Amino acid sequence: MTAIERMPDPVALSPVPQPQPPERSTTAVLAAAPLSAPLKMSVHNLHCYYSDFLAVRNVSLEIPEGQITAIIGPSGCGKSTVLRSINRMNDLIPGFRSTGSIMLDGEDLLGPQSDAIAMRRRVGMLFQRPNPFPASIFDNVAYGLRIAGGVPRKQLTEIVEQSLERAALLDEVKDRMDRSALGLSGGQQQRLCLARALAVDPEVILMDEPCSALDPIATLRIEDLMRELAGQVTQVIVTHNMQQAARVSDATAFMLMGEGRAGELVEISPTVELFRNPRDRRTEDYITGRFG
Amino acid sequence: MNRRLRRQNTIAIAVLRGMVGLLVVLLVWIVVQLVTSGWSELTRGGFYTKVPNIGGPGGGVGPQLYNTVYVLILSMLFALPIGLAGGIFFAEYAGTGRLTNLLRRASETLATLPSIVVGLFGYALFVQATHSHPSRLAAALSLTVINLPYVVRISEDALRALPPALREGSLALGATRWQTVSRVLLPAALPALITGAIIAAGRVFGEAAAILFTGSNFSLTAHANYTLNPLDAGDTLAVNLYVFRIQAEPNVVTDARAYADGVAALLVMAVLVFNVGARLLGRAAVRRLQRTA
User: Fold this and answer.
1) ipTM entry
2) Which residue numbers of A have CB closer than 8 Å to B's CBs?
3) Does B97 touch chain A (CB under 8 A)?
4) Contact list, B293 vs chain A (CB under 8 Å)
5) What b/e string do you get for A115-139 counting C-beta neighbours within 10 Å, with b at 16 or more?
6) Rounded to whole angstroms, how far apart are CA atoms B68 and B80?
7) The domain A3-287 is classified under which CATH number: 3.90.420.10, 2.170.150.70, 3.30.460.30, 3.40.50.300?
8) Is B209 on the interface with A (CB under 8 A)?
9) pLDDT digits (tens, 9 = 90+) for B221-274
């Protein structure tokens, strides 16, 4: 791996991974607050149906740029459905349809002219279980670039290494890039999937309970990475783990099953506020463990 | 557990074991019978290379072996791409509409046709309607009709057996459906596809009825046809077995019985090798895919 030994010219690196100051103080995050950041995405009056079943009723959300927005709530409250509607992964499910609008930089992703393929290059996703392809570590990370095409071989290697570096995996895999990704541990696999998503330089990353298959140490590594990526990438994370939402997110949305088992948004607030001082009685009941 | 339930359980296990045992005994008995009676031919020098010797002993099945491999490869050249395309269509594109059901039903019906019917159909279509004569090409096309639904099925099953997370992972990175199929799903399904393709080839290897009228010239004398022309006729091993056993007059082929025993043993061994080889190759492909060392 001579490419690693030879330090590339830092000016030539396109998405420079700037080391974030270890700013973990929640009050500081709150001070920087969702209100001041420009909006990256917004969801308006989203209704989702699986055939005749209304799974999500009238959800509206605002997702500020560069921040981490968490969606929490009990099982079956529709939080994953909302997340997977954003990059239209639900379109793969027969019988699924949705109404409302999801705006990304002022463009409606649910609109008739919207191009799901092009949009998914801007909006990446991390899944519940790590899902590396049965191919080499290198080929996994290079996949998104190769399908998009037009990246010369030398640059491909550079971007793959940068992406692995951003996902804090490079040191562990740099001397076995050509081995199967399936030989990595679960935590490593999930970081590989993060590197794979980062390689196409997405503006948004959606995470669907990304740590639910990982042990606590691997979970903390992913959470650290999320904080490091905040500011560079807009992140939306669905989690059933309230502590996780409290640890990593800037804003938290709470969803609950409403009438007819349709998921509804109860409230969305800056994370510290939601956990310290919930506006809605149902939020308070949930975070204090009084039901669920 | 009370006594009645326990006895029920014991009986059920005994019956199941007996059935499976019967199956194994039957298989072993058939293989042993065929191989022992054909052993002297199988081990005789020249059996695999010489041409049949009419009017005397000591010939071989060289041309038949050649024709079998020729027709097998030719028919797989048709069946694999078409069948794979069908499998990909059903697994990845077709959805659940009424048309899909109709197509699927058609494919399954094709699979249940008796091979002699396919053979006669092949004769009518590939030989009579084209005003030609039985040929390797006509035989290979008839075998394709036999094998196509099977190849469609194994391709579809191989793709469906993959975890949906692979598909989603690829699409979520902005891949098109076709990129997902060609770059992620097909490579991941390769072990199952290899296994299935070899087993399909094994079926073709032993098929006789479908090519009795389409590929054979029933000639015991015009044998030395190691030609490349697909329009030449060519008896395969399985067809030859039939010809030797049923048609040949004992005074024309003096050791027709020995030939037939040898050919039968060869067919059985070959099909066994195909099946075992398919499993081994499939397993090797999985290991290669997950190679971590």
Assistant:
1) 0.83
2) 87, 89, 92, 94, 117-121, 124-125, 127, 129, 131-135, 143-144, 146-148, 179-180, 182-183, 193, 196-197, 200
3) no
4) 179
5) ebbebbbbbbbbbbbbbbbbbbbbb
6) 17
7) 3.40.50.300
8) no
9) 555 567 777 877 788 888 877 777 776 665 566 677 777 888 888 888 888 888
